[in-house]
């Protein structure tokens, strides 16, 4: 029994994800980029991350040709930028200021974190290409403590708020875990 694309999308809308804009440069120097929440870490040694890019994205050819890319982790103040880079067309490049990273990649000012990566591997993934990158460098904003990450959940933007265990009515999870560990040690 196959799941329909509509049902699949509706179910996965309930998976919260960090919002990023992934950028690269074409051989002619043109900046390319798109909004992605399909980013995850893969390995610590070597430091690898991956993202998935739809074949129909206007920047897909540039990411297939380029050997480097940057991942910009957006702050909650950058939802407009995320919406802009979710659209096709060149207007997003004309309206967006970029800085240049250590590896000459286009970086977005105000992003929480920048990762500069070299392409480690590319894999087919249905209607997407899975691109794995080795992190060659990175930086984070100096305003890290005052900014929150931009998140996407149930087709809406939001941000992170830590759970107040007392308000939520849950016992202190750390003390519960410590008691469980103590019981395991005593039972051995």
Q: Give the tally of β-strands.
A: 12
Task: Give the class from helix and strand content and strand pairing.
Answer: alpha+beta
Stretches where pLDDT is under 50 for at least 5 consecutive residues are 179-188
Order of helices and strands: HEEEEEHEHHEEEEEEHH
Shape descriptor reads globular
Note the gap between the termini.
Answer: 46 Å
Query: Strand sequence of the main sheet, in spatial order?
Result: 3-2-6-9-10-5-4
Mean pLDDT: 87
Q: Can you lay out the helices and strands and say which pair or pack?
A:
Blueprint: H1 5-12, E1 17-18, E2 20-25, E3 31-36, E4 40-43, E5 48-54, H2 60-65, E6 68-73, H3 79-85, H4 91-94, E7 99-100, E8 106-107, E9 113-125, E10 128-140, E11 151-153, E12 156-158, H5 165-168, H6 173-187
Antiparallel strand pairs: 1-11, 2-3, 2-6, 4-5, 5-10, 6-9, 7-8, 9-10, 11-12
Question: Can you describe what's shown?
Answer:
A hairpin with a 2-residue loop joins strand 9 and strand 10 (128-140). A seven-stranded antiparallel sheet has the order 3-2-6-9-10-5-4. The chain has six helices and twelve strands. It starts with a helix and ends with a helix. It is α+β, with helices and mostly antiparallel strands and 188 residues long. Residues 179-188 have low confidence and may be disordered.
Q: What would a concise description of this structure say?
A:
The protein has six helices and twelve strands. With 188 residues, it is of the alpha+beta class. It starts with a helix and ends with a helix.
